[in-house]
């Protein structure tokens, strides 16, 4: 699938924003710590991926009732759903000058019911000509997402026969529908009931 930049200027995917607040001291602190052991862009991107995937539990897996949506809040509170974790990873990449974008899938249950939008990150490393999608939602039995620039290792490859979709657009900030749902949620159970079914 060809990924499409919503903004043709790659610098848009380095910018700080309301959700991707990579100039926040908490984001900078985590970025500096990760960069201390991983100085080149590839190893840093992989280390930041592993950190967000493994050290920040997906709140639906852990049962955490808090809702986070800013990168700094995700890193400070150590929780978030896929959208929030994707924002945190995007911020950590941009903090090191690595272009990063938010992108999405539409997923369903095994019978095609209960569609929901799932959040991913696309990264453009130096020397690479194409964006590579990554999934930091967090692994669990049956889910084994890995960092890769060649073969995608996402948590949930789409099943078109069930109406699942890979959305090709790359966003500099969370899709407005996603961000509105996160900001409006009183707690995670409320968020669970209001997650968007499609973009």
Top keywords for this entry?
single chain; 199 residues; alpha+beta; C8orf32 fold; 4-stranded antiparallel beta sheet; two-stranded parallel sheet; 7 helices; 6 strands; globular
Task: Furnish the topology, listing elements before pairings.
Layout: E1 4-5, H1 25-37, H2 41-55, H3 59-62, H4 71-77, H5 82-94, E2 100-107, E3 116-123, E4 132-134, E5 165-166, E6 169-170, H6 176-184, H7 188-194
Parallel strand pairs: 1-6
Antiparallel strand pairs: 2-3, 2-5, 3-4
Helix pairs in contact: 1-4, 1-5, 2-5, 4-5
CATH fold label: C8orf32 fold
Tally the helices. 7
- Give the helix proportion (percent range): 25-40%
Q: Structural class of the helix and strand makeup?
A: alpha+beta
How many beta-strand elements?
6
Mean pLDDT metric: 96
Strand order of the largest sheet: 4-3-2-5
CATH architectural type: Roll
Terminus-to-terminus distance? 18 Å
Q: What order do the SSEs take from the amino end to the carboxyl end, as H and E?
A: EHHHHHEEEEEHH
- Could you list the spans in which at least 5 consecutive residues all have pLDDT below 50? none
Report on the biggest sheet. 4 strands, antiparallel
Shape: globular
Assigned CATH class: Alpha Beta
Overall domain count: 1
How much strand content do the residues show? 5-15%
Task: Tell me the radius of gyration.
Answer: 15 Å
């Amino acid at each position: 699938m060809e990924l499409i930049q919503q903004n043709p200027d790659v610098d848009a995917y380095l910018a700080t924003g309301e959700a991707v607040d990579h100039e926040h001291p908490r984001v900078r602190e985590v970025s500096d710590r990760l960069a201390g052991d991983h100085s080149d862009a590839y190893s840093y991107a992989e280390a930041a991926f592993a950190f967000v995937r493994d050290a920040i539990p997906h709140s639906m897996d852990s049962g955490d009732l808090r809702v986070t949506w800013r990168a700094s809040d995700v890193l400070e509170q150590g929780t978030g759903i896929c959208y929030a974790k994707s924002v945190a990873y995007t911020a950590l990449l941009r903090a090191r000058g690595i272009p990063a974008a938010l992108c999405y899938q539409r997923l369903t249950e095994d019978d095609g019911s209960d569609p929901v939008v799932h959040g991913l990150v696309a990264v453009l490393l130096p020397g690479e000509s194409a964006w590579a999608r990554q999934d930091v939602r967090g692994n669990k039995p049956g889910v084994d997402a890995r960092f890769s620039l060649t073969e995608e290792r996402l948590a949930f490859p789409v099943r078109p026969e069930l109406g699942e979709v890979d959305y090709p657009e790359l966003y500099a900030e969370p899709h407005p529908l996603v961000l509105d749902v996160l900001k409006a949620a009183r707690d995670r159970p409320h968020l669970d009931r209001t997650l968007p079914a499609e973009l």
